[in-house]
Design a protein that fits this description.
Length: 468
């Protein structure tokens, strides 16, 4: 929350006092909570062309067309499309020279007498930033974390006002825009886990960077986008699917990176809980993977995800330093099997008790959380670059007082080695590959997939330069 920001009343009143801003409010679920603010503060006649709430499903379908789910991105988009077209048809001729038209819409599910699940909703605004211009758009998805219906309604009203105000005042400052969405709110009440910008006002904006901003600024702990750069709400990718995740820095992707994933996936597909289903496969980068001395380098981040995109991978950006928190996140969306592909060094970290001093149950509690679902760790062997000794999941040493615990995990197949790995890839480390790229050592080309070599050279990624 920004303590110096205007409060919700002030934002709504400032919009009402701006004669240029004029539009429609269309809300389904949780009442007319956003429109109510503009009526409450006074002067709404200068802002509200129409306010509509199509609660009945039959009425909603008659206006916006049928939908499988009423609280969905598809339904929100149909609301915005319909209402903006209608607004222009009715008012563009008479008011288009002096009004920046907008449509705000939301479709939300909150607690009720019959619904006790966690609340969530889709909110969006389509707006003009110049008279008669093509519209731009911001769409967000929120988890509503209050336990009382009236509190959820209040939070919805606040974030809706924030979104409208931000669209008209911070469109040229996207990082400020994102931060302002939580004015008057806290993470205990609202989590904003997806945002998408489009249209001429955001022509130079990369939505992948905006997903990163959600995590960096603490509006959510994880954000996701597909290989084509489309930001997605996690349910769209993970719902009721087995999930396989590989965590890494991917700077750059190496032959080892892909071998780890592909061999882990072969074993994952044989698990009884997967049963031949096609899993959701994610490449995860944590903020810790991204931080350098100067913070998060956005150019470097985009270079990494461009390479992953060329490989057709869906990317998860998270603030989950610990694997059990990642598993808890995935378990919100699926009860199917979860596989984690990792190397021996990461497995050693999982067994390092210094990382769990904040947990009352220490390492044992973390393991209870990590393996409470159908979770398996697929461990890629590691070769010591000095001694040449190969460590696998089976021969890895842990502290003496943890040996019985580790033996239990191995015996119960919670942890297993990745089989059929390519031994030629064991000496490859991404930091070494990166150093060779930056010192013009062409041997790096044998250490990464051919398609990755091509994109690194073409786009001069990671400091690559042709020798003259």
């Amino acid at each position: 929350m920004n303590s110096d920001a205007l409060d919700t009343n002030q934002k709504a009143l400032q919009i009402n006092m701006d004669a240029k801003i004029y539009g429609t409010f269309a809300e389904i679920g949780a009442g007319q909570e956003v429109a109510r603010w503009f009526f409450h503060v006074g002067g709404a006649a200068g802002t509200v062309a129409k306010s509509i709430s199509a609660y009945d499903m039959g009425v909603s379908d008659a206006i916006y067309g049928p939908s499988d789910r009423y609280v969905s991105r598809k339904r929100l988009q149909s609301m915005v499309d319909y209402e903006f077209k209608l607004l222009l048809e009715r008012l563009n001729a008479s008011r288009g020279d002096r009004c920046l038209f907008f449509v705000f819409a939301d479709t939300v599910a909150t607690h009720s007498f019959t619904r006790h699940e966690e609340g969530h909703g889709w909110l969006g605004i389509r707006f003009q930033d110049k008279y008669h211009s093509e519209p731009s758009e911001i769409i967000i998805h929120v988890r509503m974390l209050d336990h009382e219906n009236v509190r959820e309604q209040e939070a919805l009203g606040i974030i809706g006002v924030n979104l409208i105000f931000a669209a008209f005042h911070y469109a040229k400052q996207p990082e400020v825009l994102i931060k302002s969405l939580m004015d008057g709110l806290t993470r205990e009440r609202i989590e904003l886990d997806m945002i998408k910008f489009s249209g001429p006002a955001f022509a130079m904006l990369d939505n992948r960077l905006m997903s990163l901003q959600l995590v960096q600024q603490g509006l959510t702990d994880a954000a996701m986008f597909t290989a084509d750069g489309e930001v997605v709400q996690p349910t769209d990718v993970l719902y009721k699917k087995p999930v396989l995740v590989e965590r890494g820095s991917f700077r750059p992707v190496t032959n080892t990176t892909l071998d780890m994933l592909e061999r882990a996936q072969e074993q994952f597909l044989l698990e009884p809980g997967v049963s031949g289903e096609q899993p959701a496969v994610l490449m995860e980068m944590t903020l810790r993977n991204l931080f350098s001395d100067g913070g998060v380098d956005h150019k470097d981040f985009l270079q990494r995800v461009d390479v992953l995109a060329a490989l057709g991978k869906t990317v998860l950006v998270s603030n989950y330093a610990r694997y059990y928190k990642l598993v808890a996140y995935l378990s919100r969306y699926t009860q199917k099997s979860i596989g984690l592909a990792l190397g021996v060094p990461s497995l050693r970290e999982i067994f390092d008790e210094k990382f769990y001093t904040d947990l009352e149950g220490g390492l044992l509690e973390s393991f209870g959380r990590l393996f409470k679902s159908t979770v398996k760790l697929y461990v890629y062997p590691w070769r010591d670059p000095v001694t040449g000794k190969v460590t696998t999941a089976e021969n890895m040493k842990v502290a003496p007082h943890l040996q019985n615990l580790y033996a239990y995990l191995l015996e119960n197949k919670c942890v297993e080695s990745i089989q059929k790995h390519n031994v030629e890839y064991l000496p490859i480390f991404s930091r070494d590959v990166l150093a060779r790229i930056q010192t013009y050592d062409p041997s790096w080309e044998t250490m990464v997939p051919a398609s990755v070599v091509e994109i690194i050279k073409r786009d001069k990624l990671f400091g690559f330069r042709e020798l003259k």
